[in-house]
Amino acid sequence: DQQVKQNSPSLSVQEGRISILNCDYTNSMFDYFLWYKKYPAEGPTFLISISSIKDKNEDGRFTVFLNKSAKHLSLHIVPSQPGDSAVYFCAASSGTYKYIFGTGTRLKVLA
Amino acid sequence: DAMVIQNPRYQVTQFGKPVTLSCSQTLNHNVMYWYQQKSSQAPKLLFHYYDKDFNNEADTPDNFQSRRPNTSFCFLDIRSPGLGDAAMYLCATSRARGGGEQFFGPGTRLTVL
Question: Do residue A44 and residue B31 have CB atoms under 8 angstroms apart?
Fold first, then answer.
């Protein structure tokens, strides 16, 4: 049973527009969520995180929103840039060592 | 720059021939993880070390073993690789056991012939 789901395998967005990447989870014990970005031939790189006590966290062009009642989080990238083209993973933790990852969404930002 | 290094980046082995993948870190982090990632799938945790304390995931096959001789190094040993073990193997570290970001190496792509 996949506890963290990224239902969109891919997304294409025009440069300068908003990219919205979505993630759903099923385990209500998850209390910490992270987004990672992965370029080809590199390991995932941490992007932004959010604790369950918040509903929004912002870092520059990147904002993560958490809707606990819907068990849904989203990553907004504004404005999108060609260098943002990568695979984005969301991951969730229940305060332990273990992070459950989604399958990733491939974002392509078109120039 | 502090980082997580994995060697080799690409490893080819034969069916049943033991193979060892290496990970080292300069971050001085307590926790080191090994993940297996197959194409279009989520990274799957195999095991982790908290210092020298080894923690195996319940569904990690016995074929997979690990060693952490010191803080900086961690090894993944696959005793008898099968075709189904072909995957990307990711090493990661974190400062603490609960919460916080993980720092990943670039991965080792394992091919089993």
Answer: no
Angle at A26 between CA A13 and CA A105, to 5 degrees: 20
**What confidence score (pLDDT) does residue B99 get?**
64
Mutate to test the interface with B, among A1, A10, A42, A97 (most CBs of B within 10 A): A97
Per 3-state DSSP, chain B is made up of helix, strand and coil in percentages (nearest 5) of 5, 50, 45
In the numeric block, which tokens belong to residue A46? Answer: 């941490």
Q: Are strands B10-13 and B108-112 parallel, antiparallel or unpaired?
A: parallel
Does the pLDDT at position A75 exceed 80?
Answer: yes
Beta bridge partners of A106: A10, A87
pLDDT in tens, B8-51: 999 999 999 999 999 999 999 999 999 999 988 999 999 999 99
B98 and A42 within 8 Å at the Cβ level: the answer is no
Chain B: residue nearest A105 by CA? B40
Residue A45's pLDDT is 94
SS3 B69: coil
